[in-house]
Amino acid sequence: FYASLATRAVSSGFALDIFACSLDQVGLHEMKVLADRTGGYMVMSDSFSMHVFKDSFRKVFECDEAGYLKLGYNAKMEVFTSREFKCCGAVGALTSLQKRGPCVAETEIGESRTSQWCVGSMDHNTTMA
Fold it and tell me: How far apart are CA 116 and CA 99, in angstroms?
């Protein structure tokens, strides 16, 4: 269920952040795919008053000097190669857009069989390989 929901979110350009506070099971393991594929954040704490929760929440909505969030949303990444090279895939908080072409390799690494990916949310620490 959550994998299909993540695919729908990425195709619509959404990033899903999950902030959960509970002493009981809330199903974060099952929901992890939502944050992973859309580039969102996942934070769990015992209560809303814990420092880790407050600091994480504050950091997500931190603005620069001009008043804009320090995040980028709905970014597209595409790889172009020469004839001798082929792209095996990408690793990171991104999702395949299923764009096939002559530069796509048969070997699969991470999100593969494409030359174009969507990144739901990214900041200055986001890394993709």
Answer: 6
d(CA 26, CA 101): 41
Residue whose token pair is 């809303």? 48
How far, in Å, CA of 116 to CA of 87, rounded?
A: 10
For helices 2-12 and 28-38, give the axis angle rounded to 10 degrees: 20
Strand order in the sheet with 116-122: 72-78, 116-122, 95-96
pTM of the full structure:
0.79
What pLDDT digit, counting tens, does each position of 50-87 carry?
898 899 889 889 999 999 999 988 999 999 999 999 99
